[in-house]
Amino acid sequence: SARTKTADISREKSAQLFEKAKQYFPGGVNSPVRAFKSVYGTPLFIERGDKAHIWDADENEFIDFCCSWGPLILGHNNDQIREAVTAQLSKGLSFGAPTALENELAELIISNNRFIEKIRFVSSGTEAVMSAIRLARGYTKRDKIVKFEGCYHGHSDSLLVKAGSGLVTFGETSSAGVPKAFADETIVIALNDKEALTAVFDQFKDQIAAVIIEGVPANNGLLLQTKEYIHYLREITTQNGALLIFDEVITGFRLGFEGAAAYYDVQPDIITYGKIIGGGMPVGAYGASKELMSCISPDGSVYQAGTLSGNPVAMAAGIATCKVLTQPDFYKNLNAKTELFVSEIRNYIEEKNYEVKIFTIASIFWFAFTDQEAILKASEIDPNSMELYKLMHRELLNRGIYFGPSGYEVGFISHAHTNEDLITAKQHIFAALDLVFG
Ligand code: PLP
């Protein structure tokens, strides 16, 4: 049953909009998690955002920790991004021909990133990963890919695959409409399990095109891997002539400008980007060495294209974002702010002896209702604990704190979150935890 301390906020206008939306869209939404199926109530329809704050259709104000699922590392309505986008608008929205803006964003990225030599812009993270997989298969002339249980890489066919039972199994499709033949080419293993990784290469020697892992798995809780494991992953892929793909759609430009590759000090063969790279506009990208990228059309035989790829307005937003991110101490300050926020919450939890943990890396955090000291694999998350997240989520919304509508999703802190925002949020988080455990 739903315990609440505070009265539920008014959702009248959002509820009306949702009723209408249900007539137009499956489940009333254009991306499933937005439907609030895993938390109380119906979705809030957002009207506007400014800095770390958002307002819904009923004029409720929230401090936002979802940040559009990661892209908004500079918060909402950032001055530099808005000005850059506005300036581009009057020049044209799309040409389907090269623009200098693409060069500018590529140069900003490549000259500040030791891990890629060439890049290709696409329009979403899904597209970036899908293309990276094709590149890996085209380059190695092998078909199988290995992914990890609990890692999300967008909704392309080869990657909508979940683990079967057993140490090493062919995947099972995790969506209707994905042919079994596709899932047969995807092998799914548990994270942080050297034995499974070794077994996979023993069993499928010379058949594996690539292993793909999220820079830091952050789509099914925050599953922080050990450095040792990531280095082993690099070693075993190299030894077997398989490529290592880092999906940095979340971690790219988040863990630091050079993302998880720099954090782990590992050179992946292909890196995919999304979210932050477009500053809130639809952009994805994949990058690799010159040699690998020469396989992509029109230089090579791996086909990949896009009508809106490198879109000038989106490039302008990406350039403005990257200019801020490359300023000295940007990440140092953002990460320090997050560390303080998280450590104060952690202290409170410990003081009260509540059975919840807050895991963190850089400016990402995740609440796990568990007594375990660490959670490194998807199977270590107790699905029943999500009931507690639901309670917390409802209480936080009532108190003006917006978290993602699922306990499996991580939270993000942006450059725009002020100390005052974080102090306010912390007090409400304490109260929400008191309610959950009260
Ligand atoms: N890869 C990762 C690691 C992601 O987190 C996501 C989206 O959340 C994707 C790929 C897919 O990106 P998009 O939603 O832009 O298609």
Describe the overall structure.
The chain contains 13 helices and 17 strands. By secondary structure, the protein is of the alpha/beta class. It has 2 domains: 175 residues, Alpha-Beta Complex (Aspartate Aminotransferase, domain 1), CATH 3.90.1150.10; 247 residues, 3-Layer(aba) Sandwich (Aspartate Aminotransferase, domain 2), CATH 3.40.640. An 8-stranded mixed beta sheet has the order 4-13-12-11-10-5-9-7, with helices on both faces. A 4-stranded mixed beta sheet has the order 1-2-3-16. Helix 2 packs antiparallel against helix 10, helix 6 runs parallel beside helix 7 and helix 12 crosses helix 13. The protein is globular and about 60 Å long. 48% of the residues are buried. The mean pLDDT is 96. The protein binds pyridoxal-5'-phosphate (PLP). The site of pyridoxal-5'-phosphate (PLP) has 15 residues, from helix 4. It catalyses: (S)-4-amino-5-oxopentanoate = 5-aminolevulinate. Its main location: cytoplasm. It comes from Sphingobacterium anhuiense. GO terms for molecular function: glutamate-1-semialdehyde 2,1-aminomutase activity.
